[in-house]
Every structure is written in structure tokens, then in C-alpha cells.
């Protein structure tokens, strides 16, 4: 066990010299072995150790025994000890949640408060065996790749030095060092899902594969790698939409990528957390290329002609009939339109523009050609909505078209056309959101200052 703990500490950088560590001590074999091991490396890492025990007020005299044992164990190891008592059954009833969930919520709340006071890390005694049970628990409930990752070795300032150890390792360590511990009688009864997994399901799996823990551990390692890959694409897709209004990656990504990106977009853009049923419906709409989904918070998600939009049910008329005479003097920075769109513009130099255009640069922006203008050509400019008789010269097309004809060609929905912000300079349409820059205002080799516009559409 010692070698596995040291390996985990090095691999995941769990400890640094001088750390304060709050140890969750139940009095069971796992937590006693953890505290004993940390005491063995206390001088090596100059650790300041503290132990916390939660009395759940569930098991009567047995729980009292556990609390007394935990305090005595800490006294023997010269570790400061603190006992908390919480009526978990009552709290669970008040919150309408199960005892297991409530106990975990209260327990981690106490750990976090102790860590805040002492400025330390939190060490919990989760093992490889616990992680395996967690994976099976998630599988039974129907999880994604993320659910197969099990328990993370490190999460923020929470560390789990025993995460590579099995229960047999823990028991052998306790025997070697003559460590006494108590046993929670509820862990021996198949009354909870996790107990059923531990006592009934895993023994059957070991009959098929005695090394099932290691096998599921390898599955979790692969899941971490796959999940990180999916997360990277999801983040890029969400960033594209949130910052550039581009939904290209959402339409080209896998369902798992699209789903995660939509979750983040809804959280950051709408401040709502959709349920899985909403996410599935949104993915289906994207796959069809059209459709709408009612979301929490009175929001509506819509897809039409490979364009995404979010609107408020209560603001439906406003979205379609906001002030068509809106005009605001152009200034760099942030502007909010009457329809709730955010327009951000900034002036950059030619070097920065070249970086945005360079596909080999980390700053490459595929939308740069649509969103950049020659800043020095912009005079007496205003942001506004479309007006009767507006005409536009699309960059690089050597023609001038009415906006009606242009919007028809671009297949922009009629109910969206009136909401697209336009930048006008001395009576000439210089830029249209989602369409791009006019030929007269394109960036050339002689351009010294570049206007870079980003617009977030609702």
C-alpha cells in the first residue's frame, strides 16, 4: 500500500512541503490506514495534519463508539481531532433527498469549511475498489463516457492517496502495522445500491475475471483520455458559438461533443441548466437542420437553415418588432441592441490581424475575413438595423445587391433579417452581422488599423 500511495502522490502531485491536510476519518479501515500513512510521511513533507469525524446520528450506540474510537486513534497519533454531529435523517427529510446523498453533501460541506479555516487540502480515503463501485453504479443508471471515469485522484484541493489501492491492500497494511479499526454495520447489509454492488454484483464478476478491479481501472483510464478529447472539441464548439456566433462545429460534431457544447452555451448564455431530455431534443433538431425546443427559464431553442437562435417566449413579439429606427453612434467596445444582441468591436494593428489570418497560428480565427474592416475608412459611422433601399457590395464578389436579394441567397430566415445589426459609414453599408464586410471596407496590404467585430446573436 505504501508504494501505491507514494506513486499516486508523485503522479498526481497531491502533496507539497508544508501542506495542511484535513483527513476525513470515519474510523473504518480505509480512513485509519490513510491517516496512519500520512503520519508516516508527516516529517518528510512537513505536513500539518487534522482529522474530522462526522456523527450522522443514524446508528445509535454504534455511531457513538465510532466517534470515540476516531478521537482515541487521533490522540495516539498526535493528530488534532474535531467531531461534528449532524442529524442526517432529519436534514434528508427536509431536503427530500436520500440518506447517502445527504450524508455525502453534509460531510463535504464540513470538510470544505475546515479547509477554508485552515487553508489546507482535504484527504479522503477513497480506494480503487470505491472507484470500481462508482463506475458500476454509473453504468447501472445509464451513463456517458464521463461516468466511466470513476473517482478522480485529485479534484481541486481534494486528494485521494489511496486511489490505486484495493481493499486487500488496506487490510494487509492494517495487519502489518497493528492498526485497529471499526466496521460500519450498514456496510454489511445489501440495503443500499452501493452495498449491493460490493456484496453481490462484484463477487459474481470476480468469478468471471478475478482481476475485475484492474480491468475496470483500465476502463476508467481510457475513459479519462476519451473524455478529455471530447471535452476539448466541446469547448471549441461552445467558444465558436459564444464568441463568434458560429455553429459550424455544432453541426459537424458528434452527439457527445454537441451535447456538452450546448450545455455550456445554455449555462453561460442563458444562465439555465437544461436536463438531458432537452439536450437530446436540441441535438435531434440540429441533426434535422430545423426544429425548436422549449428550455427551462422560458427560453426557446430554434434551428433553421443551419442557424441557431435562442429567444424568450415572453419576448417573442419584442424579438420580432423591436425598434426598427434604432441607430447608435459607432464606438469601439460593447454595444447592446434593442433585440438583446451584444456587439463587441476593437481596433487591432496589422500584425495582430496577420496572426488571426494565419492558419498555423494559435490565434487563427476562421471568421476573421467576415468580421474585420479597414478602420481608417470608417467615418461618421452608426450601428442600425436594415432600412428600405439598403444595398450591399459583398467582399470579393464584384457586385452590389439589395439586402432582400442577398438575404434570399444566404437563406436567412425572414423573421431574423430585421434583427441583424448593420454598420453604416456615411450612408454606405460597411458590415452586416453574419454576412460580412463590404468590398469598400475590406482590409488590404495598406491598411494600418483594423476594426475587429464580434457579435453574439440571440
Beginning-to-end CA distance, first to last residue: 55 Å
CATH homologous group name of the largest domain: HUPs
Mean pLDDT: 87
- Provide the structure class: alpha+beta
> What share of residues are in beta strands?
15-25%
- Catalogue the unreliable spans: 314-320
**CATH hierarchy class name of the largest domain:** Alpha Beta
CATH architecture of the largest domain: 3-Layer(aba) Sandwich
Number of domain modules: 3
Which term fits the overall shape? elongated
Number of E-type strands: 20
Helix content: 40-55%
> What is CATH's topology name of the largest domain?
Rossmann fold
- Main sheet record: 6 strands, mixed
Tally of helical segments? 18
> What does the radius of gyration come to?
30 Å
Strand order in space, largest sheet? 3-2-1-4-6-5
Report on this structure:
There is one protein chain. 45% of the residues lie in helices and 19% in strands. It is of the alpha+beta class and 458 residues long. The protein has three domains: 2-202, Rossmann fold; 222-317; 322-456, no CATH class. It has a six-stranded mixed sheet, with helices on both faces. It has a five-stranded antiparallel sheet with strand order 10-14-17-18-19. A four-stranded antiparallel sheet has the order 11-12-20-13. The model is unreliable at 314-320 (pLDDT under 50).
